[in-house]
Amino acid sequence: MDIQNLYEKLKSIQKAKGYYFNQDREKVFELLEALVFNRDRYGYMACPCRLASGDRDKDEDIICPCVYREPDVKEFGSCYCNLYVSEAWNKEEIPREYVPERRPAEKIF
Fold it and tell me: What is the pTM of this model?
């Protein structure tokens, strides 16, 4: 699957759930390329903004969309890597704050 097709597929699926891609398409495509790279390397699309172990069970929480996306978008309007955002974040109706790492330290390698 090429990046454009992945973009269109995920955009449709996630919009139905209330999530949007960052309006910075260049950043989005860089992150999608990194997800595909991780899929090819590990066999799953690990978050490109975190270090994956290569063990799917250990990385289950950071397979995109990660388990931290929902609380991050709810609190900050954006996930940790700014791939998925709220509509308000894209429209700059809320401040664009730094999203802190929620992943527990013991899961970070």
Answer: 0.92
